[in-house]
Amino acid sequence: MSDRSIKFVSSALSIMLGLATPIALTIGFPDVVVAQTVDEKKEGADRLFRQGIQQYQANQLEVALESWQKALTVYQELKDRRGEMYTLGNLGLAYRALRNYAKAIEYMQQVLAIAREIRDRQSEGEALSSMGMAHLYLNQYAKTIEYLQQWLTLNREIKDRQAEMRSLFTLSELYVALKDKAQAVELSQQAVALAKELKSPELEKKALQILEKAQKLVGSSLQVSPRKAEADRLLQQGSQQLQANQVESALQSWQQALVIYQELKDFLGKVNALRNLEATYYSLSNATKAIKYGQQLLAITREIKDRQNEGAVLSNLGVAYLDLGNSTKAIEYHQQSLAIARELQDRKSEGRSLGNLGAAYQALGNYAKAIEYAQQRLEIARELKDRQGEGKALGNLGHAYQYLGNYAKAIEYAQQWLKISKEIRDQRPPE
């Protein structure tokens, strides 16, 4: 049972920032205890909301959308603005995961409006950052900057220094990618000053690295050339074609866009096109093509010294090689991914890499190694209260013991896996 290391929907900016995922409205829930809810309709909406979270975490996005749409209808009927806002935010998050960025923006605009109405400044900031990231997916850089700049301003108004630092990193990295030297230098200098104020050597080091990159730039503007406009149009056209299930047409559009982006040396556009091609070929079970584009992404992460996303891409390549039946190559990539996760002290990524290694060794018939890695994966999943990861580890252990002929142990782990799968409503059998 392999653990996909990342959802194949991460943005180009997430690569540059070294973020596992873009900043977005967190899946959460207003401070309401269901047991204290007297209104039956509200209790039902709360239940649907939580059900949607479980389905989302189990990667059942379409089902999660249904649950949240039902919850949204009730919250709107009850005029529960906070419940409505959280639900809209989660709908936007799910549509972004489905690469329907226009729909994601539509929902996040509603979140932003409600957050401003009820004067929830933190949620307003999260909505602004999420809006900026969604526009980035569409290569709409001016809009991206507009929303991220508003996010920065808000963080300064509410004196959230940590969020202000994230805003500065996001904007300065974006301007570096856009080769706007003046803005990149100015914002990264502000980040250095803030890091010193916060007395954080780690943040200061990162800010100085961005500043160094900015100072090496040859300045340019956001002027869009006809060729770039054509590439951006093709990129967006591909996303629309994918939504309409015109997969082959989408692939052709992205491949044409990639050629232009490479010709123009457009970093952001190139990464977006590669991501879309890799993700789609992977979803088509075309591991060979997914590896082709994944290798190019790996080269980019190493070029810009983005260790977090280097680890993620390595893990994806390992999964692809395992799909091709090349367990040895899969282990090689997963070991590299594991080393980076431990270097960064990223326990979640470490757990996924351990799970992937266990699956690869099981495919090789080395069940002792498979059990060793699955046990480590299980330990981390329980530490992080990751029920889906825990279920996968238990399923792997059950399989390994079954192959060894230890049926008592196999049944023990299978029963634990079954209990968790029912709890999180994951109907998929262990792989």
Helix and strand topology:
Blueprint: H1 12-17, H2 40-57, H3 61-78, H4 81-97, H5 101-117, H6 121-137, H7 141-157, H8 161-177, H9 181-197, H10 201-215, H11 226-243, H12 247-264, H13 267-283, H14 287-303, H15 307-323, H16 327-343, H17 347-364, H18 367-383, H19 387-403, H20 407-423
Helix pairs in contact: 2-3, 2-4, 3-4, 4-5, 5-6, 6-7, 7-8, 8-9, 8-10, 9-10, 11-12, 11-13, 12-13, 13-14, 14-15, 15-16, 15-17, 16-17, 17-18, 17-19, 18-19, 19-20
Task: Write up what this structure looks like.
By secondary structure, the chain is mostly helical. The chain contains 20 helices and no strands. Helix 4 packs antiparallel against helix 5. The longest helix has 18 residues, at 40-57. It is globular and about 65 Å long.
Keywords:
431 residues; mainly alpha; 77% helix
Question: Helix fraction?
Answer: over 70%
Oligomer: single chain
Instruction: Give the tally of β-strands.
Output: 0
Separate helix tally? 20
Q: In a few lines, what is going on in this structure?
A:
The chain has 20 helices and no strands. It has 431 residues and is mostly helical.
